[in-house]
Amino acid sequence: MDKDYILSEIKRTAEENGGKPLGRERFEKFTGIKPSDWAGKYWIRWNELIIEAGYKPNQMQSAYKDDFLIQKLIELIEERGHFPTALERKLKARQDKNFPSHNTFSRFGRKEELIRVVLKYCEDNDVENLIVDACKNAITKTSLHLSEDKNEQETEFGFVYLIKSGKHYKIGRSVSPEKREYELKIQLPEKPSLVHKIKTDDPVGIEKYWHDRFKEKRKGGEWFELSQNELQAFRRRKFM
Q1: For residue 161, is it left (φ>0), alpha (ψ between -120 and 50) or beta?
Q2: In angstroms, rounded to a whole number, what is the distance separating the alpha carbons of residues 155 and 27?
Q3: pLDDT tens, 9-55?
Q4: How far apart are CA 123 and CA 120, in angstroms?
Q5: Is the pLDDT of residue 210 over 90?
Q6: Helices 148-156 & 86-95, crossing angle to 10 degrees?
Q7: Distance of CA 98 to the CA centre of its chain
Q8: Residue 62 pLDDT > 60, yes or no?
Q9: From its phi and psi, is residue 164 left (phi > 0), alpha (psi between -120 and 50) or beta?
């Protein structure tokens, strides 16, 4: 992996992020480029890489305070009318840049522990009964093993796959890429082969990410003509 390619990925992901370079961990997650690919080879520190790409290093953000997280969660309870699932928090964070990442709430523990933290905050701060009732209802469901998080994760889980036929590649989503490969063998004149699959709890969003990333290479529908670097970028990802 050469220096120019890494710099081009910094610029591409920054453009997709509103002109702001990603942090080191997010950059690795979205590109598959690890510190071992650049540290000690082209740069010593991450900030040096960012500066050479033409950006100012991101300022470290202070950690959210517990009360702030709880208040944001209460606002989402009011919006949804019930205690939000992990997927609803994840969606909210994507839609609203002022809402914390859904992973941030993991500091409070598992779902039932998070609900009890919010409930205690409500009792200590005289929050309206609607919020208290939503928390109590959520605790009841969790104790009966009817957690909405668990059900949604099971139904949303799947794969984004890369299948080759001739010189073109199909990027699609399925709960069974192997079955999809078999179906395409019946439909296509050139024998398709499954190149790679990415495990994900957000098949729709991750499929869109790769479609958008390779939009200049689209040849029709979900079919793309990809370079070796683009294939390697896809194949580096095991989970998104």
Answers
A1: beta
A2: 28
A3: 899 888 887 788 888 888 888 888 888 888 878 887 888 888 898 88
A4: 5
A5: yes
A6: 70
A7: 17
A8: no
A9: beta
